[in-house]
From TrEMBL:
Domain of life: Eukaryota
Residue ranges of the TM segments: none
Protein name per its UniProtKB record: BRCT domain-containing protein
Gene3D superfamilies cross-referenced by the UniProt entry: BRCT domain
Segments forming domain BRCT: 1-91, 96-192
Region listing for Disordered, in residue ranges: 243-284
Amino acid sequence: MEEMLVYFEGVTAAVVNYSPADTNAIRNELQMLGTRVRERYTPDCTHLMTPYQQGQDYKQAAIDGKIVVSYAWLEDCLTARRVVPHTDKVLYQPIRDENGVPGMEQAVVSIAGYKGPIRNDIRELIEAAGATFNQNFTKKTTHLICYRAESEVYAKALLFKLEGQMLEIVNHRWIEDSVRNWRRMPEESEVYRKLGVEVDFEERLDAEKKLRMDVEAQLEEEERSRRNLQELLEAEERARQEMQQQLLEEESQRISLRTQLEGEGQNREALQHQFSRSRSDIDS
């Protein structure tokens, strides 16, 4: 929570295109978090909160590369009591316009098997797309967003299809991609034919694969660093040995020179002694 407060204290946000009541409520929530709130978008804004990708405020914020989100992002931040990445959900993006995705107006969509926040998110996406949400699966339903096969609703859907009803069974990616791309995505695509549980399993596998690759890359980097350090230590050891060898050679040369000098000194004393004897013999 403290980290979230620090984040929002550094935010300057404009809230536009909501109803007056919603705008005031959102601004109050932001101000309670310590955010500086502007009436309209200005260059010092870090965030723009708007339900639609429309208007001069949106265009300029997009051009300026600012963070543009819908209220759904702030709502999830408050619920999670932390800053949620604004790219995590399609719902965090303002929708293209209030008229819905072309071709979705005839769609009647039901949900089966999804629970909790994800179910609420799917329902909001259905409504944002301009389709009709059907709480209970009936023969009016044209699309069933289904999580798993082990359900009474799924069996009922298969029976309806056998009876000739025009019914598409898809996963949550279909509605997400339809809203994200603002066009009705082809239900017959293999990507959307999988059940939601299959999609989640594949995503977990991909996440685990990415994690494993990241760990392997980190281990390889650590191994390269270890080898580089080993090579550096070996080079330093070679340099130390070479220096030691050089010192030994210099010491040997010094000893040899001292021995030579001592020998010369002894020779000089012997010559001096012989000279003294010769002088003594001459004097006598």
